[in-house]
Write a structure and sequence with these properties.
By secondary structure, the chain is of the alpha/beta class. The protein contains twelve helices and 13 strands. The strands form two sheets. It has a seven-stranded mixed beta sheet, sandwiched between helices. A six-stranded antiparallel beta sheet has the order 3-2-1-6-5-4. Helix 5 crosses helix 6, helix 7 packs parallel to helix 8 and helix 10 packs antiparallel against helix 11. The longest helix is centred in the middle third of the chain and has 15 residues. The radius of gyration is 20 Å and the shape is globular.
């Protein structure tokens, strides 16, 4: 089964496939240029059973957290992120192909000022977008540039670790959910005692993690994280909705005081393939005042007016 699995990975890696979708005894499918296409071959039940029994150490830790799906990193002539789950009693897996190396910011098409903004201001920095929009790759590119230029200690909290970050002039501590820490909120609190300059949080999913991230930023430690959202105003509204009404004024105050930037990104289909487009909100004094007042709907106009400061609307 391992050889069959490796053959599938190697074949997909040679093409522009980003995801492999597998369900036992059904046809395999691929995501190619943001479209799902059939692969023609049926996934044997034995292959899925092998996939579900090959990562027992991490899975045992996560079963205690009442999760019924499991994420793992996998290496074979490259790196992959594997999510295993069940559907109608059948074993399923989605495999994200992580491309070799960490691309630079210019080749990605994102703002090259992000590392400088983090270095100068720290604060809380958010990279947002839908699944598959390249958020993890953007984070890796930003952190790689930071480590090239400055002797920082960066702690990453990931699920799972996707890119192995080069230390450059600094020090990197990469920690994986289920193996090195049991929840993002606890991982953040623990990291505060480990002398970081910057925390990278793979994804903020719940109010406890958001609260811990805001507290870390307020203490003077830089924080960069991803969220499943799109657009600065929508992202801030979603953060507020994580919390009960009694806490929202304080959360808005923390965001207004500590927000450094929100980059929203999407992948658009072009004749040359998928191309990244982004919106960038920078936490200028005017933007921070607007957040403190809760006027999130004004932020799109402020991005337009802030182009000279490096802000950008979607094209």
């Amino acid at each position: 089964m391992e050889k069959l699995f490796h053959d599938i990975l190697a074949r997909c890696r040679q093409e522009q496939i980003t995801d492999i979708l597998m369900k036992e005894e059904l046809e395999i499918h691929y995501r190619l240029e943001d479209e799902i296409v059939p692969g023609g071959e049926v996934v044997p039940k034995e292959l899925m059973q092998w996939l579900f029994t090959s990562f027992n150490q991490t899975d045992r830790v996560r079963e205690g957290s009442e999760r019924l799906d499991f994420d793992s990193a996998y290496d074979y002539k490259g790196r992959y992120r594997i999510n295993r789950f069940t559907s109608e009693g059948k074993l399923c897996a989605t495999i994200r192909i992580i491309r070799d190396g960490i691309p630079d910011l210019k080749s990605l098409g994102v703002s090259e000022q992000l590392p400088d903004l983090i270095y100068k201001n720290r604060g809380i920095n958010l990279v947002v977008g839908k699944t598959g929009s390249g958020k993890s790759t953007t984070l890796a590119a930003v952190l790689s540039r930071l480590l090239e230029d400055w002797p920082w200690h960066i702690i990453s909290l990931e699920d799972p670790v996707e890119y192995h970050l080069p230390a450059g002039k600094g020090l990197v501590t990469q920690r994986e959910l289920g193996r090195d820490f049991l929840s993002f909120s606890e991982g953040i609190k623990s990291a505060l005692r480990q002398s970081p300059d910057l925390l990278m949080i793979g994804e903020i999913r719940d109010p406890n993690s958001m609260r811990a991230a805001l507290d870390a930023a307020e203490s003077g430690i830089g924080v960069i994280a991803t969220l499943h959202s799109l657009g600065a105003s929508t992202t801030l509204s979603r953060i507020m909705q994580m919390f009960p009404g009694t806490e929202r004024d304080f959360v808005r105050f923390q965001l207004g005081e500590n927000l450094n930037f929100i980059q929203s990104q999407i992948l658009n289909k072009t004749p040359e393939g998928l191309k990244l487009d982004y919106e960038l909100l920078i936490g200028s004094p005017a933007v921070k005042n607007t957040i403190l007042e809760g006027n999130f709907k004004q932020l799109s106009n402020m991005i337009f007016l802030g182009q000279r400061q490096g802000m950008k609307n979607f094209n």
